Amino acid sequence: xxxxxxxxxxxxxxxxxxxxxxxxxxxxxxxxxxxxxxxxxxxxxxxxxxxxxxxxxxxxxxxxxxxxxxxxxxxxxxxxxxxxxxxxxxxxxxxxxxxxxxxxxxxxxxxxxxxxxxxxxxxxxxxxxxxxxxxxxxxxxxxxxxxxxxxxxxxxxxxxxx
Length: 162
Hints:
By secondary structure, the protein is α+β, with helices and mostly antiparallel strands. The protein is 31% helix and 21% strand.
């Protein structure tokens, strides 16, 4: 990966809404060169998706997010991949990671309620033959997501208003 590609990735990681024109101007590069480099990163699977970070606490809708730790038995010839790919196919699963430590997989799921997430774990995740155990942790509040602070910090001073 060359310097231009690294610079493009750094910029769109910080703000995925930047246009090719804006990126080219910020990097002092030709617009066509930036467009080609970006297309190459997309086609090569380096850039997988452009997205927005939503502060769900600001929405009217009720939703639940949970981190589910999953301990599995690796399968001969597939290791952890086969079960990970199967779990990833569920719509409720938003992120899935192979981890070191006591549990093998960390699964982030979204649901409409505590009950729906609990049902997902008991009726889907724990029913796989290779799943040994799970531990579900409900996310209560997000302070920082993908490097973005979700709330403004209070500096400890009281506000003074006239």
